[in-house]
Amino acid sequence: MENSNHLTESWSLPWQSVLSSQLWRLEHLYWIENKAGQLQRFSLNRAQRRLHERLWYRNDILKARQLGISTYVAMLMLDMSLFRSNFHCGIIDKSLPDAQQKLAKLHFAWDHLDYVPPNPSAMDVALARLGERIKSLSGVEKKGEWQPRTLARSRLAFSNGSDVRVGTNLRGGTMQFLHVSELAYVSVHAPWRAREIRTGAINTVPPGGFILKESTHEGGRYGVNYELTRQAMENMGKSELSPLDFRFFFSAGLTRMSTLCRGAADGAGNWMSISFLWNGRPEWFWMRGRRDGMPGWPG
User: Which residue, 166, 167, 149, is CA-closest to 158?
Assistant: First the structure.
């Protein structure tokens, strides 16, 4: 995911050396609003970093709690849009306001590329100047301010030809990066739309493109989301994945493996096997779940 070259070529050698690293860009260039409503420079937390390190072309993330996965995907999508020309992205969510809220995170981060925090360090000032240059190269000047080439509630476009559009389903056109959020909810409450997302938006992403499907589980052992997640879990048995195979991630947000193991069985003795990424390698754990119809195999 490091083959970006749109902006890096125009910089002096010292900046080129750091801007060529996507991880460096993610941890230095972008600002977010935290849960307390305060601005903070984006930095990958433990779960986000492990996801980033093992990210594949197609990724299926089963979420158990809030870990900032959507924020990470938003910053990654913005970064790839800025540092790659004609890079087209899409965000699909269970409702249009939810999708627009994710797009707003991208615009917020772009708009604050040149933000200087109170009592800035020399690095803060240097990064703000760098951000202002990036805004000038990716945006257009309107009334003395840099703005994205297109700024609408459902689309964000930059002067390098890259753009991000959002909706409850996206059809038409090819996307290089697709974020599908809460497909399990859609599979239960609007199964016809879930099928359209699978046959339309997901299938339009080329083999070299990126898909991140992240969802909490609901709906039992049926529906589009269940089918895709089960396939991703079955792919864990493969020694090598193709660009069309989904890689499975389970984000439990637990700090100790024993915490996960202690909640293994329910009162009826139902068990579920599910892959959990820990310490950089897949580990197999048993956890409660079959009674809720989550995808898995019997023990």
Answer: 149
Q: What six digits make up the tokens of 142?
A: 């309107």
Distance from CA of residue 235 to its chain's centroid? 20
**Token digits of residue 13:** 């050698």
Q: What is the pTM of this model?
A: 0.82
User: Tens digits of per-residue pLDDT, 216-270?
Assistant: 888 778 899 999 999 999 998 888 999 999 999 986 544 333 333 333 333 333 3
The runs of H, that is alpha helices, within the chain are 13-19, 22-28, 46-53, 69-82, 96-111, 122-138, 183-189, 191-196, 203-204, 224-234, 257-262
The DSSP output letter for 57 is S
**What is the SS3 assignment for 124?**
helix
Distances (CA, A) of 299 to 38, 86, 114, 186, 265: 46, 48, 54, 29, 11
Neighbours of 202 (CB within 10 A): 21
Residue 135 identity (one-letter amino acid): K
Whole-number CA gyration radius for the chain: 20
